[in-house]
């Protein structure tokens, strides 16, 4: 058998030493004991719980002796600031990504403008780190320390365990943090684009970062206007398929054909779940025949919930 690849040894930090792995560039703000907000550069940050749980969460991987980890262990609050693509911002991110500097040293000449987030307004009693005004979006988060029994983890010099599987101190040098998203903050311009339908020109300019390579430099690519790709033809559902499933959800609550037409674009795997949620709405509103107008109301309600 032949194939077209070569085998590459897997070594530590394989995502940047053994390949090309595209990543986001974020600056994570955390709160120090003296009330100072400090920033660290982080790319290993990814959505973790995206649906079907009581909350939505991100997963961060970082050094367990970093300022970010130290502060998260102490007060559990952080903000993930997504910075736009500008040479001077990336340069500043690399400076804020240099290990060993204290928060005071890092923040003394910081180029970013720090301001309060939105969580502090809703709950002034709980101290929160400030956020970066130049970011295009920010996730304000809380570390869920109770997962994997990590609530007692406090890193100190000479720490020898226990090491958790996926949350808290996970190895001699590493920590993982499952971060509940408390609020998503986004600049008004991008909020409107999300609400009114995404356009090619509507994306914020974001850098794609390839990490620290050859022990000398951080690499990233500047932003390019995104392209879109339509769903494969013929993958949309026929209305009769929707009607067939709709008829089988409940013995009393039915859908008109026009109502079913509204669901032909829903991927097959999600269809039943969507139909059940429509039937639940109908039951709560004493509706036994779901019409196109009802579907509009349900859709409105869903998009309002989505947008908070
Ligand atoms: C663009 C960029 C991305 C980085 N991503 C990570 C990361 O995901 N995890 C990590 O442990 N370190 C990462 N680093 C290195 C940290 O920023 C570095 O350890 C820094 O000292 C952390 O700051 P802190 O100690 O103030 O938290 C990154 C550095 C840069 C410049």
Explain the overall architecture:
The chain folds into two domains: 14-221, Pnp Oxidase, Chain A; 239-306, Orthogonal Bundle (Helicase, Ruva Protein, domain 3). Strands 1, 2, 3, 4, 5, 8, 9 and 10 form an eight-stranded antiparallel sheet that branches. The chain has a two-stranded antiparallel sheet with strand order 6-7. A two-stranded antiparallel ribbon has the order 11-12. It has helices at residues 14-17, 67-75, 87-96, 103-108, 119-122, 188-196, 239-246, 257-261, 268-284, 292-306; strands at 26-31, 37-42, 45-49, 57-63, 77-82, 114-115, 131-132, 137-143, 168-169, 174-186, 208-213, 217-221, 254-255, 289-290. Helix content is 28%, strand content 23%. The longest helix is centred in the last third of the chain and has 17 residues, at 268-284. It contains ten helices and 14 strands. Strand 1 and strand 2 form a beta hairpin. It is of the alpha+beta class and 308 residues long. It binds flavin mononucleotide (FMN). The site of flavin mononucleotide (FMN) has 19 residues, from strand 2, strand 4, helix 2 and helix 3. Flavin mononucleotide is lined by residues 25, 38, 40-44, 61-63, 66-68, 93-94, 97, 99, 209, 218.
């Amino acid at each position: 058998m032949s194939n077209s690849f070569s085998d590459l040894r897997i070594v530590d930090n394989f995502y940047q030493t053994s390949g090309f792995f595209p990543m986001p560039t974020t600056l994570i703000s955390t709160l120090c004991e003296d009330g100072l907000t400090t920033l660290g550069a982080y790319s290993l940050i990814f959505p973790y719980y995206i649906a079907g749980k009581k909350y939505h969460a991100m997963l961060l991987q970082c050094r367990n002796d970093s300022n970010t980890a130290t502060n998260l262990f102490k007060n559990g609050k952080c903000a993930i600031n997504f910075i736009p693509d500008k040479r001077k911002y990336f340069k500043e991110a690399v400076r804020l990504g240099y290990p060993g500097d204290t928060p005071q040293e890092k923040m003394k000449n910081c180029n970013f403008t720090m301001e309060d987030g939105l969580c502090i307004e809703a709950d002034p009693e709980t101290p929160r780190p400030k956020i970066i005004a130049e970011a295009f979006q920010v996730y304000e988060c809380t570390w869920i320390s109770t997962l994997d029994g990590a609530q007692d983890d406090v890193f100190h010099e000479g720490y020898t365990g226990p090491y958790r599987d996926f949350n808290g101190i996970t190895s001699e040098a590493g920590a993982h943090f499952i971060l509940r998203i408390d609020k998503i903050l986004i600049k008004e311009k991008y909020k409107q684009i999300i609400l009114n339908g995404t356009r090619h020109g509507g994306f914020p300019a974001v850098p794609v970062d390839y990490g620290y390579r050859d022990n000398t430099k951080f690499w990233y690519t500047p932003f390019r206007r995104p392209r879109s790709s339509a769903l494969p033809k013929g993958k949309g559902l026929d209305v009769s398929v929707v009607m067939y499933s709709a008829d089988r959800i409940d013995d009393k609550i039915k859908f008109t054909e026009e109502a079913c037409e509204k669901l032909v674009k829903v991927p097959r795997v999600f269809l039943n779940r969507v139909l059940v949620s429509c039937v639940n709405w109908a039951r709560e509103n004493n509706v036994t025949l779901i019409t196109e107008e009802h579907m509009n109301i349900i859709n409105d309600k869903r998009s309002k919930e989505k947008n908070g």
